[in-house]
Write a sequence for this structure.
């Protein structure tokens, strides 16, 4: 889902980057307030965790493999604010160290994968819990909706390019396909494959943690973020 | 069905390889290696922005030559560099752009006819070439930066820009623990692979991947407690103190001067 460098205009990059500033500022404030000193390494390690699991190839029927992002999983574990800092940093490392995504596109990529994905995923997860669904199912649905929301945001950013940035005779300067192509193409892939992979993996991780009785890991930080003492 | 194991092992392996490779290149004596990291970060960022505003093939060609020369004089092995950067910028982007060549996406002057109403347009081809060149050049700058600079140096340079502590501190710690977690992960996948007999179906594979993730999560939480204790025992009180020493040298002034001249000439001949 990474938007590579050069696909969107520098103006779009600037807007998306600017959109991430208030998100990260609020996130830093929230985390400073509700986290203990003890939890700062947890965020760094959360970021390393996100980076690591993005490298895991998940087998899908038909013999090929796909990747999970784990944004919802991280949001459940660390709470969405801390997760968004952790994921931004993981994306930053990917961009600078391995050239995945890009430096200019980092704003857009982190908006999609470090803001939309964890927040939507976490919101849906909480909603499902309040509807008395169990945690495994709730986290799976959260993961599914979260990644699809991020894919939709990505598709919109890409699809707006030919509309906004073109030469005098209408030739697109950046990503050449409009919303009518970008949204269906992106959403088809995510609604059918990537979303399901994310859902299954998120649900299975939660299931596994419940099974080995380590479930409290998932809620260690998010309870505290909400002010519950558990 | 064990290819997901191999793929994961290989992709983790390549992270380690990349790290090693960039360590080897960053100690060579080239143009980029002799610059101050802060200057390097800022100047490449500016160049990146300028390239991304470029619209014509001739403009992109100038920058293409620029990046190739920069890579050459920074002692970066050209073949590996071109293959690596082309993978995304030429091949992946090329496939994405194929439909945009045709008149069905955007009307234009016909260039190559397939049928009477289905042809490659001149505009489509031109903008696809500009697109690929832009992508190639942008990725080149990032690649050259990553290879010619030690990670510690990049982190140090980021510290001197006014980025809130919580980000730089988290980034520094994250970068160190990535390698630990990757090692834990690669060992799990290797262990699974070495015990693999016969065929296992993909649902079993998914269960394995999920439990591996959960296991990494559990271990990383334990690790975070250990890390905190280690930090406290070394005098951590909630604040980081870091030592940064940077020196802008003669080379940096030459570099800045050269780039300003280059960009002004470019501006003059190619507004």
């Amino acid at each position: 889902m990474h938007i590579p460098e050069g696909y969107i205009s520098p103006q779009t990059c600037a807007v998306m980057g600017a959109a991430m500033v208030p998100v990260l500022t609020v996130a830093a404030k929230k985390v400073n307030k509700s986290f203990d000193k003890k939890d700062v390494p947890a965020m760094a390690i959360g970021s390393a965790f996100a980076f690591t699991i993005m490298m895991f190839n998940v087998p899908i029927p038909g013999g090929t493999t796909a990747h999970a992002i784990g944004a919802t999983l991280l949001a459940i574990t660390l709470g969405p604010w801390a997760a968004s800092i952790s994921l931004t940093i993981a994306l930053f490392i990917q961009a600078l160290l391995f050239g995945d995504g890009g430096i200019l596109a980092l704003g857009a990529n982190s908006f999609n994968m470090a803001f939309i994905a964890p927040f939507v995923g976490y919101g849906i997860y909480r909603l499902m819990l309040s509807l008395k669904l169990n945690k495994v199912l709730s986290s799976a649905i959260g993961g599914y909706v979260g990644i699809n929301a991020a894919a939709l945001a990505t598709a919109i950013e890409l699809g707006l390019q030919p509309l906004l940035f073109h030469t005098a005779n209408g030739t697109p300067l950046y990503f050449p396909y409009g919303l009518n192509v970008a949204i269906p193409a992106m959403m088809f892939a995510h609604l059918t494959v990537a979303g399901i992979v994310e859902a299954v993996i998120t649900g299975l991780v939660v299931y596994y943690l419940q099974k080995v009785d380590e479930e409290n890991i998932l809620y260690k930080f998010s309870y505290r973020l909400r002010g519950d003492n558990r | 069905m064990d290819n997901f194991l191999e793929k994961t092992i290989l992709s983790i392996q390549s992270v380690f390889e990349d790290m090693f490779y960039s360590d080897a290149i960053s100690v060579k004596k080239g143009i980029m290696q002799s610059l101050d990291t802060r200057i390097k970060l800022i100047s490449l960022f500016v160049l990146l922005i300028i390239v991304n505003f470029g619209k014509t093939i001739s403009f992109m060609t100038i920058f293409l030559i620029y990046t190739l020369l920069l890579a050459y004089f920074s002692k970066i092995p050209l073949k590996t560099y071109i293959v690596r950067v082309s993978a995304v910028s030429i091949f992946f982007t090329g496939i994405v752009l194929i439909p945009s060549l045709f008149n069905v996406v955007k009307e234009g002057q016909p260039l190559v006819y397939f049928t009477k109403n289905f042809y490659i347009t001149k505009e489509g081809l031109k903008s696809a070439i500009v697109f690929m060149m832009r992508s190639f050049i942008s990725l080149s700058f990032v690649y050259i930066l990553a290879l010619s600079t030690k990670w510690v140096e990049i982190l140090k340079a980021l510290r001197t820009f006014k980025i809130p502590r919580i980000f730089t501190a988290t980034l520094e710690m994250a970068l160190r623990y990535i390698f630990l977690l990757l090692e834990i992960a690669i060992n799990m996948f290797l262990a699974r692979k070495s015990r693999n007999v016969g065929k296992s179906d993909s649902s079993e594979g998914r269960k394995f991947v999920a439990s591996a993730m959960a296991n990494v999560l559990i271990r990383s939480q334990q690790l975070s407690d250990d890390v905190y204790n280690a930090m406290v025992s070394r005098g951590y009180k909630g604040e980081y103190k870091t030592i940064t020493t940077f020196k802008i040298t003669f080379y940096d002034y030459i570099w800045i001067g050269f780039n300003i001249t280059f960009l002004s000439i470019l501006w003059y001949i190619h507004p």
In short: Chain A is about 70% helix and 5% strand. Chain A touches chain B through 77 residues (CB under 8 Å). The two ends of chain A are 36 Å apart (CA to CA).
